[in-house]
């Protein structure tokens, strides 16, 4: 879809999305508040350097920084390559090393819309009972977790985990204003989340910990994981900027033992 907003309108929209006044943004970006006002109203045109400076201050995603540049009449500066592009070979090697090195524990890579791009050998054993339709590419990690025919019936602390995932997605939506993420959020939020499966919405059997853990019932025994997210630092490529590696660590010794046994078989 072609963007028809002016550069001034776009800058104002991003500033308001970050809940900043013109003065707040001017101070943070070290520019004149009067000049910023002129940029937003169209009385002045920003240089490429000014756009990038304001976008950095506003934490505008790289994809949308290109949109700002084009709206102002400049060429995009952040390339977007497919992950299998030869120039991203080093990044692919890093991802493969992390995924394999994290075994026997689960790890996967997702794009900005939570589509799974790669995973290690510890993921498939956890997907027992999932509807084959949810495993048709492209597989969406959040849909896989929260759909009634996905992992949801086997998540012991479903409401807690659901709230955790929806909070993350909502925060991502606020940061990016990505309409596809908005549609995904609406879809996931509409899934039934009461009265399905055991222990719905309770964590009474689990002591408070340092993070929200995923408690998953499997034929191998109950598993508990704490997740972490890894992103590429200071990426200059749109694709890399939107990748995330989701790694899961055992929250107890029993989970660690089960995963070691699964990967040894």
Class by helix and strand content? alpha+beta
Anisotropy-based shape: elongated
Number of helices: 11
Rg to the nearest angstrom? 22 Å
Largest sheet: 5 strands, antiparallel
Q: Encode the helix/strand succession as letters.
A: HHHHHHEEHHHEEHEH
Distance between the amino and carboxyl termini: 49 Å
**Residue windows where pLDDT falls under 50 for at least 5 positions:** 199-207
**Strand runs, count:** 5
Q: What is the strand content?
A: 5-15%
How much is the average pLDDT? 92
Query: Roughly what percent helix?
Result: 40-55%
| Largest sheet: spatial strand order | 2-1-5-4-3
Structural features, described:
With 265 residues, the protein is of the alpha+beta class. Helices cover 43% and strands 10% of the residues. The protein is built from 11 helices and 5 strands, in the order ααααααββαααββαβα. The protein has helices at 7-17, 22-29, 33-41, 48-57, 62-71, 89-101, 141-146, 158-176, 179-189, 238-241, 253-264; strands spanning 107-110, 116-119, 213-216, 223-230, 244-250. A 5-stranded antiparallel beta sheet has the order 2-1-5-4-3. β3 and β4 form a beta hairpin. α1 (7-17) crosses α3 (33-41) and α8 packs antiparallel against α9. The chain is elongated and about 65 Å long. The N and C termini lie far apart (49 Å). Residues 199-207 have low confidence and may be disordered.
Q: Which helices and strands appear, and what pairs or packs with what?
A:
Elements: H1 7-17, H2 22-29, H3 33-41, H4 48-57, H5 62-71, H6 89-101, E1 107-110, E2 116-119, H7 141-146, H8 158-176, H9 179-189, E3 213-216, E4 223-230, H10 238-241, E5 244-250, H11 253-264
Antiparallel strand pairs: 1-2, 1-5, 3-4, 4-5
Helix pairs in contact: 1-3, 8-9
